[in-house]
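Structure ticket #2291
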Amino acid sequence: MSLCDFNSLDEASKEKYHLLLMDYVEKLGSKNFFLQLLEDIREAKTHPLLAKNSEFVFSYGSIKWNKVIFKDKIDLLQKIRIHESQQGNLLPPKGDKNYKKAMNLLRTIKPIVFTVRPKEIEGAKSFFFQALTVVDEETTLLNPIFDAIFFCSIDTVKKLLNYTPKG
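Resolution: structure written out below.
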């Protein structure tokens, strides 16, 4: 299940993603700083991952990564991430016509490390993450924090941040 589809998540998944996001909120300093990061990314004229200098500066800090990502890779990633929640995998089945393209994309972005460096804000600290989570040789998923920061709607992320477990 993709965290970007709040309504399709069961209670356990909502709680899991809430806790995960709150961990990163704490690292960045506050919920408002985290949401500002998302807003700055969404307001960028071109997708921040396409930055030629592999850096995105936002109101409360910066995100840097160690490899330039080209538009065709971002376009393909946006296309295959939609199917991830349906198939439980970013990779299409082996016989699929897009399998090779998807595999090349995953090989390209798997080693990339994203480092978030907040400005000097009391209690905030740098953190890093990768774009992908490799489950096994045949299963790869988007890292939920990567998905939340670069792709999910801000409303969905807000719902997850404000989620309180039932019971």
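Closing remark: The CA atoms of residues 69 and 108 lie 8 Å apart.
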